[in-house]
Amino acid sequence: MPIYDFHCRRCDRTFELLVSIGAVPACPECGSEGMEKLPSLTAPQGKTAGLIARARAQAAREGHFSNYAPSERPRIKP
């Protein structure tokens, strides 16, 4: 069974749910059956700006700069 994204029209929340292809489930929050199936991404999008920023902040806290490109390293102040 594939994972689909659903949006509840009543409580305005979005969920990922594992359902059969033709099924439209009830909302896990409010119980409404007014769920709308949304297009989902087929794979993770890789490194996002937020993920990169968190990894760089952790690297700086730990005292290494492995998450920075060589061209960026001279500008970094430890």
Automatic annotation (TrEMBL):
One Pfam family linked to the record: Zn_ribbon_8
Residues of the Putative regulatory protein FmdB zinc ribbon domain: 1-40
NCBIfam families, A to Z: CxxC_CxxC_SSSS (TIGR02605)
The protein's name in its UniProt record: FmdB family regulatory protein
Record lineage: Bacteria, Pseudomonadati, Pseudomonadota, Gammaproteobacteria, Methylococcales
